[in-house]
Amino acid sequence: MYFYREDLINMIVPDKPDPVAAKVMQEILGGHFGEMRTMMQYFFQSSNFRGTEKKYRDLLRGIFLEEIAHVELVQTTINHLLNESGEPGAGAESPSGAPLSSPVQQGANPHHYIIGAQASLPVDAAGNPWNGSWVYSHGNLIGDLLDNLNLESTGVLQKSRIYEMSSNKTFRETLAFLIVRDNAHQNAFAKALETLGVDWAKLFPVPNYDINKYPECRKYVEMGFHNAQFNFRLDDTLIAEVFSGKSPSRNGGELQVTPPPQGNPLPVMPELPNEHSPGTSDMNR
Amino acid sequence: MYFYREDLINMIVPDKPDPVAAKVMQEILGGHFGEMRTMMQYFFQSSNFRGTEKKYRDLLRGIFLEEIAHVELVQTTINHLLNESGEPGAGAESPSGAPLSSPVQQGANPHHYIIGAQASLPVDAAGNPWNGSWVYSHGNLIGDLLDNLNLESTGVLQKSRIYEMSSNKTFRETLAFLIVRDNAHQNAFAKALETLGVDWAKLFPVPNYDINKYPECRKYVEMGFHNAQFNFRLDDTLIAEVFSGKSPSRNGGELQVTPPPQGNPLPVMPELPNEHSPGTSDMNR
Amino acid sequence: MYFYREDLINMIVPDKPDPVAAKVMQEILGGHFGEMRTMMQYFFQSSNFRGTEKKYRDLLRGIFLEEIAHVELVQTTINHLLNESGEPGAGAESPSGAPLSSPVQQGANPHHYIIGAQASLPVDAAGNPWNGSWVYSHGNLIGDLLDNLNLESTGVLQKSRIYEMSSNKTFRETLAFLIVRDNAHQNAFAKALETLGVDWAKLFPVPNYDINKYPECRKYVEMGFHNAQFNFRLDDTLIAEVFSGKSPSRNGGELQVTPPPQGNPLPVMPELPNEHSPGTSDMNR
Amino acid sequence: MYFYREDLINMIVPDKPDPVAAKVMQEILGGHFGEMRTMMQYFFQSSNFRGTEKKYRDLLRGIFLEEIAHVELVQTTINHLLNESGEPGAGAESPSGAPLSSPVQQGANPHHYIIGAQASLPVDAAGNPWNGSWVYSHGNLIGDLLDNLNLESTGVLQKSRIYEMSSNKTFRETLAFLIVRDNAHQNAFAKALETLGVDWAKLFPVPNYDINKYPECRKYVEMGFHNAQFNFRLDDTLIAEVFSGKSPSRNGGELQVTPPPQGNPLPVMPELPNEHSPGTSDMNR
Amino acid sequence: MYFYREDLINMIVPDKPDPVAAKVMQEILGGHFGEMRTMMQYFFQSSNFRGTEKKYRDLLRGIFLEEIAHVELVQTTINHLLNESGEPGAGAESPSGAPLSSPVQQGANPHHYIIGAQASLPVDAAGNPWNGSWVYSHGNLIGDLLDNLNLESTGVLQKSRIYEMSSNKTFRETLAFLIVRDNAHQNAFAKALETLGVDWAKLFPVPNYDINKYPECRKYVEMGFHNAQFNFRLDDTLIAEVFSGKSPSRNGGELQVTPPPQGNPLPVMPELPNEHSPGTSDMNR
Amino acid sequence: MYFYREDLINMIVPDKPDPVAAKVMQEILGGHFGEMRTMMQYFFQSSNFRGTEKKYRDLLRGIFLEEIAHVELVQTTINHLLNESGEPGAGAESPSGAPLSSPVQQGANPHHYIIGAQASLPVDAAGNPWNGSWVYSHGNLIGDLLDNLNLESTGVLQKSRIYEMSSNKTFRETLAFLIVRDNAHQNAFAKALETLGVDWAKLFPVPNYDINKYPECRKYVEMGFHNAQFNFRLDDTLIAEVFSGKSPSRNGGELQVTPPPQGNPLPVMPELPNEHSPGTSDMNR
Questions:
Q1: N- or C-end of chain B: fewer Cβ atoms within 10 A?
Q2: Which class is B19-86+103-261 in CATH?
Q3: Does the keyword Cytoplasm apply (chains A, B, C, D, E, F) (predicted)?
Q4: For residue range B129-172, what is the model confidence (pLDDT) as tens digits?
Q5: Closest approach of chain D CAs to the CA of B255, in angstroms?
Q6: Residue of A84, A87, A104 best to disrupt the D interface, most CBs of D under 10 A
Q7: ipTM of the predicted structure?
Q8: What is the DSSP letter of B194?
Q9: Are C69 and C75 in contact (CB under 8 A)?
C-alpha cells in the first residue's frame, strides 16, 4: 500500500510564465521516454516479477516509488510555467479583449488552456496522448534491465536537449534535478547487470554530459544524488544488495541507499476566474 | 512524496488458472473506466488543483493514493489468473508439443503470453492500449467532481457485468472488493457535490446493485467499506471535512475516515522457464 | 438542418442471437470502410465544398443523408444479434452462475457486454476504435470522387466477405440490403466521373459479385435499388443532373432519383436487468 | 430516416481570416468534448436504448438531431476562418513566392492546407484525430444521463475558454450560440435526472458563466434559447414529458419545446486554384 | 531479397536551414498519403498477391522498390532542412543561453530536437505517428489499383500544396522530383486499369497541375520522368507488359521502362555536440 | 537505391492452414518488437546518421536490408497459414452455407478475411495497427545501439514464446530461422558496443535459449547463421570493421560477413473466388 506526505521531491524556483517551455516540458511528463512511462513501467515490472530474487524486485519498486514523485514534480513545474500566462483580467477589459490569444499565437499547446485551466496534461511535447503500448514488462529480468537502462539513458539525453529550449529558471531547475536522478537510475540498472557479469568499462554515463553545460546540476552532484538511491519503503528492502559498492560509471564514487531528500512545500496555485477555475467562488452562495 | 509498505490492499483467493477471465479483467486495469484511469485522473486533478479549498484537494489525493493500491491488486489478480495457464513442461515434452497453444486457441489475449510472461498489461479487455486522452482534469471543481462521480458509477457498473463472465474465485473476490470501494468513492464525490448544494434523493448507488447477486461483497459491506475512506496520509489531511456525516446514498450509514485495511502479503509468483522468466536461473553461472 | 422520422431504412429479420456475427458486423459500423466513415466523409466533403457546381454538392450530401440511416440500421442489427445472448436469469440462478461467460468464451467482443449492455459500439471487427484520420475530404473534386468510388467498392467487397461469416438471417438481410445500396452509391460516383469524361467500360461493379451467391440481394435488385438514389431533401436538389441516364456499370439500367423506401418500425429492445439496463425499474421508487 | 433542408442552424458573421482561431475551433468540432462526440454519443445512446420509457429515448434522439446541425455549423465556421487565408495569387506571383508560408509560420494547423483546401477536419485543437473510444453509451440510463450532463457542462466550459483566444467575430458568434445551446442541453439532462429524484439546488449552470463576458450570448438568451429544445421530428415525440416545467438551473425560466430556429443560407465558398480546389475549372474542357 | 547501392535517387540542393519547412515536409514522409504509406502499401500488395497474372505483381513490386528510395530521399531532405538549425555553440556560450529555443518558438516540431538530433521522424506534419491502419491491401486487384491511383493523385495534390509553404531550395527540389514521379506512378496504375477496359479520357493528371507553377519540375519532365518506370530488378520483370504504349494522361507521350537515374552521393551530416550526436567523440577514450 | 531479386530469404515449409497461428504470427510482423519495427528503426537510424564513423552506419544499413527480406518472409508465412483456411466452395454450396464462419468462430483475426483476402496485415497479434511512435532513432550512437540490442533480444524472446503456440511446420520453420538471425543481430549490436569498451561476459544470448527446445534452429546454427552478417550491398561496405572477430556471446565462434543465403522461390498463391481475389477472372471479358 502507498502512503503520502505532502512534500515535493525538489524545489520550484520562481520565474516568469513560459508557455512554450511548458509545451516542451510535457515530453518529460507524458512522452515516450517521460516520467509517466518510467513510473508505469517499473510498476508493472515489480508487480509482474517472478521468482525469488527479491533484491531485484525491491530495486524495481524502489525506483517506481521515486518516479511517482517525479511525475508530481513535473506536473507542478508545468503548472508554474503556465500560471497566469494569459493576459490579466477578464475578457472584456483586456487590451485585445481576448486574454488567451497571446500564448496560443506564440506556439503554446492550446490544450493547456482548453482542457485544463493552465495545467499539465498526460501528453507529449507534440500533443500526442500517453500510450500504454510504450510500457515494457516482459518478465525476463535481463530484458527488463536492458530496457530500463536504455530508458534512463534516453531520459538524460532528452532532458539535456530540452534544457536548451529555454533559459527559464523554473524549467531548468527541474530538468537539472531530473538529469542527475536519471543518472542515478542509470547507475542502478547498470549495476544490476554488473551483478550478472557485465563490465561496462567507460560506457556510462550515456550520454556523456558535461556538468559545466548544466550548472544547476552541480549542487545535486555535490550532494551525491547521482550515486544515491532514495529509500521510500516503510518496511525492509533488499535494494542495497544491488545498489552498493563502486559506481558502474566512469565518474566513480560509491553507490548508497539514503533517506529521501528534505521535502519542499507544494505551492498553492492562484485561482483563474477567466478559466472558471476552480469556479466555486463565482457561485451565488 | 510517496512511501510503500509491501502489503496488498486485499487478499488473493486461490483458484485455477482462467486466461479468459484474465483477458476481461484487463478492462478493470487498463480500460477507459479502469483503475489506471482513476489513478491518473485523480493524480492530475490533485496536482493541478487551484485555490485554497484544500479539503477538496485532500479528497482527490486521498482517493488517488488508494487507486495506486487498486492497480497493484488488479495486476496481481490477473497474474494469478494466468499463472501456469500453459501446459506444464517444456515444448518438446508436452502432449501437443506446443504448451501455449491451448490458451490462445481458447480465446486468451495472446499478448499475455508474448509480451509478458503470463502477466498483466496496460491494455483493456479488447487489447487496446491505455490512452492518456481518457484522463480528465479541467480545473473546474464541479466539472471534475461530476466526471469523477460518473467514473466511479461506471466503475461499479462495469465490474458488476464482468463479475458475470466467470465464476473463478480469484476473479470474483477482487471484483467484489472493488465494487464496494467504488461505491465508497461514489459516495465521496456525491458528498462533495452535496457540500455545494445538491440533494441526490435516491439516485445512488448507481447502478442500483443488489448485494445478493454479488455474495462476496457482503463481508466488505458489513465491515463498512462502502462508507469508509481509507487514510494513507503520513501527515494531516482535511478529508473528513468533506467525507463525514450521512451517506449521500439511499443505503444510509455514516461516512468515516478510517485507517487502511490490514494488509495482505504479496504472493511470490512461480518461475516460468518455458517463457524465459525471470531467466536468470538458466544462465551458466 | 436535419429532421427525423422514426423509421428504420430496412427491416430487421428475426433470428437467434449470434455474438460472433455481432463482432464481425462491427466492421460495417466502425471499420475503416464502414458506415461511420462513409457518413462522416460525405458530411465533411459536402460542408467543405468549394465553388458553384452545386449538383455535385447535392450528390455528396444526398448520399450522406442515407448513410446516417445506414449507421442506425447497422447499430440496430448488431443490437439484435446481441439481445439476450447471455444465459437467461440473474447470476445466482443461471447454470454456471456466470451468465455472460458463454459468449465471451466463444469469441464475442467482451466490450459488447462491458461497455454497452449488449449493444453496438463505434469500433471495428478487431475492436479498434473508429479513427478520424480515415476520413478524406481534400477539396479537389476528382480526388474526392475517386476516393468515394474506392470506398463504396470496398464497401461491397467487405460486405460480401462478411456475409460468409454466418448464415444468421438478421445478419444477412442487413448485409444484402447494404451491398445493393453500396452498388448504387458506386454507380453515383462513377457516373459523376463520367460527367467529367471517363468511360468505365465494363469495370463496374467492383467486385463483380454474383447475385446468386447472395440470394437476399435479389429482391432489392428487382426493386431497382442498385440504380436508385433515395431523396431525403425537404427542399430542392440538383442531384438528378448527375444521377440520371444510363448506369455506368455493365449491368445496365437507368439511374433514377426516387423517394426513400417505406420505413420500418424501430423494434423496442428488451430490458436486461443483469446488465443494469436501463436500470430505472430496479430503483426503489 | 433523416431528412434535410439546406439551412444552417445559425448565421455566419463575416470577418477576416484567422487561421489560429480555426485551429483552436477544431476542438469544438473534433475534440474529446466537441460536437462530433456529442452527435455520435447521443446517436449510439438512442439506437441502443432498452426498455419502454420512450420519453427518454426521444430526448436523446432530439438532442442528437440538433448536434448534426452543430457539426455543420462548426465545419462552416472553420472554413470561413480559413477562406483565402494564404497570400492571394498563384505561387510565382506572390511576394514570397510561397503563398501558404505565412499561415504555417504563424502557427496554423498545416493539415488545414495540406489535407483539405483550407477546410475543416475531424481533429482536435492539437491535431489529434477524433477517436471512437470517447463515445460513451452503456445502456444504464442514469449512467448515460450523468455522462451527458458532464459532457454538456464541459462543452460550455471549453467554449468559454476558447472564446478568449480570438476576438474574431465569425469565431465568437458561433461560440456564443453554442454556449447557450449547450446550456439548454445541460438543462435537458439535469431535468431528466430531476424526474428520477435529484434536486440540483444552485449547482447549474456549470460553469457559472457571466453573460456579460460573452456579449454575443445575450440575444440568444433573450430569445430563450437556453431553455428551449428545438424539435426536429417529422412525427410525434414525447420529449416534452421530460423537457417542460421549471428550469433545473438557478437562472430559472420555463423549459419549452419549440420549432427549430429560422434557418440561414449556406454560404458558397470561393474556389482556391492554388490549392486545386475544386479543380474542375482548370481542366481543358 | 533486397540489395543496395549507396546512392540517393535525386540530388539535395543546398540552402539554409528551415525548421518549419522540415515540419511540413514530414507529411510527405509519415503522413496518411506519404512515402512510408506508399512503400508499405505496395509491399503488402505485392507480397499478398494472388493468382498468376505476374505482370501486375511485378508492377506493384517495381513501384514499391522506388518508394524505398523515396523514403530515404525525404528523410535526407528533412535532415538537411534541420541541420544546425539551432544556434551555434554550446548552451552556455550562445546569445540566449538556450540554443534550441529559437526553432521551437518559431513553430518547429519540438520532437525534431528532442527525439532525434535534428533528424527525420515517422510522423506527419501535425506530429501524429504513422499508423498501419492506413495501408490498404485487400487482394482484389481492381480495388487495389483504384486505391493506388487515388493514393498517387493525392500524393501530387498534397505535394503541390506543400510546395507553396516555403521557397527553400532544398525543400522545393525534392518536392518537384516527387511530383513528377507521382505523376508517373499515377500513369502506371491508370494504365493498369486501361488494360482492364477503362478509358480515362482527359481525367489525368489529377490534379491538373500547371508545370509553370513548379519550375523545378520542368527538367524532370523534359527527361521524361513522368512517363518512365525505373527498373530496380536484378532479375527479369514483366512490368513492361503493363507499362508501355501511350500514356493514359492527356499530356501524352509513351510509357517506358528505363534504368534508374544516375545516383547522387549521400551527404555526410555534421556532428551536433550540443545534441550529443553521435556522442562518441566526447567520450574520454 | 534499392534493388531486388525475386527470392525469399528462407523456405516456406508446407503444412495445413492454421488461422490462429497466423494471428499470433502477426506479432512478428506488425508488433511493437516485430520485423516492421526493426526494418523502419534501422532505416531511420542509417538515414539520420551523423558524423564520419561510416562503419557503424554501414552496420545499421546492412541489418536494415535484411529486415526488408524478413518482413517479406513473415508476410508470406502468414499468407500460407491462411491460404484456403475457409471452407472450400462458394457460399451456397458449403456445408454451413457460410464458408468463413469456421475460422472466425475459432479465434482467427477477422480482419484477415475482411480487409485482406486471407492475407497478412500491418497489425500485431491483438489486432492493433503498427505505430510509428515505436521507432527509435535519436542520433546518439550508444543510445541507438543499446536500444537495438534490446530490440533484438526481445525479438528472440517473443519468437521463442510464439513458437510454443502451434506445432505447425510452416509457422515453426520461419520462427526458427528468425530466432537464429535475431541472435546474429544481437551479436552485431553487442559487438558494436564492445568496440566502445563494454565486456558482456556471459550475458548473451538473451534470453538464454536452449537449442534443443527449438529443433528447427539447429541446421541454421550449424550453417553458422548465428554468427554471420549477410551482405546485401552492391558496393563496398565497412561492416566487417565492426562485425568480425570473436562473438560477444558465450556460445563463441567467429563473426563473419558472408553472401546472402541461397534464395527460395516465391510461391504463387491460389485464387480465392469467394473472397473476390484477385477478381479479374470473374469479369465478363
A1: C
A2: mainly alpha
A3: no
A4: 999 999 999 999 999 999 999 999 999 999 999 999 999 999 99
A5: 20
A6: A104
A7: 0.96
A8: H
A9: no
